[in-house]
Design a protein that fits this description.
Ig_E-set; Rho GDP-dissociation inhibitor activity; Rho GDP-dissociation inhibitor 1; elongated; 2 domains; cytoplasm; 216 residues; 5-stranded mixed sheet; 20% helix; RhoGDI_dom_sf
């Protein structure tokens, strides 16, 4: 082999090696945080009481705050800076079937298989939550799914901004369809999170589920 050919062959082998290493590193990081985002600097946080006092002479802002706060008792608002969000219930709904009510463990890690879905079926995730102490801004839901160690799905849903109130809020996610076929069936691992725009996580759930030929 001529010197130039040897050089070209060596460069090609090095490039192939770099590509292989790059591909491996992609798969190696699949189980790392998929939904890490740069934390936004939104300025100092104010208590709900302070927020009500701000711009109280601006009629348009006052009306907007009243609309946002809704049923909040203005006479008994506190001075706690941090909002608190508690996820009260989680369930999977599918037409023609009873809802699958998912127990929420305190540590966020269900033991064993959490639920089973039928291949090719349509379903929605439904949940309720309660907000207390302060307004929660940019409340969102993220979900990442793996099969045999490879990421196969990742989704995010912005839920909105919510004021504290005694009554729980309820939300239904957009309808999804489970994959079907021999290669789609089997066990999956997943991680779901409920966060706000400060990246504060109110609930993280790490779980496994199955996709099978039929409902269990």
């Amino acid at each position: 082999m001529e010197p130039d050919e040897k050089k070209a062959s060596g460069e090609a082998a090095a490039a192939a090696g770099e590509k292989s290493e790059g591909e491996s590193s992609v798969y190696a990081t699949d189980h790392e945080e998929e939904d890490e985002e740069t934390k936004l600097e939104l300025g100092p946080q104010c208590s709900l009481k302070d927020q009500l006092e701000k711009d109280k002479d601006d009629e348009s802002l006052r009306r907007w705050k009243e609309q946002l706060l809704g049923s909040v008792d203005m006479e008994n608002v506190g001075e706690i800076l941090e909002p608190d969000v508690k996820i009260l219930s989680l369930s999977i709904i599918s037409a023609g079937r009873d809802d699958i009510v998912l127990p929420i463990p305190e540590d966020g890690n269900p033991k064993g298989l959490w639920f089973t879905l039928k291949e090719g079926s349509q379903y929605r995730l439904k949940f309720s939550f309660q907000v207390s102490n302060n307004i929660v801004s940019g409340f969102r839901y993220t979900n990442t799914v793996w099969k045999t160690g490879m990421k196969v799905d990742s989704s995010k849903e912005m839920l909105g901004t919510f004021s504290p109130q005694p009554e729980p809020y309820a939300h239904e996610m957009p309808e999804e369809t489970t994959p079907s076929g021999m290669f789609a069936r089997g066990q999956y691992s997943a991680r779901s999170k409920f966060l706000d725009d400060d990246n504060k996580c109110y609930l993280e759930i790490n779980y496994t589920f199955d996709i099978r030929k039929d409902w269990v």
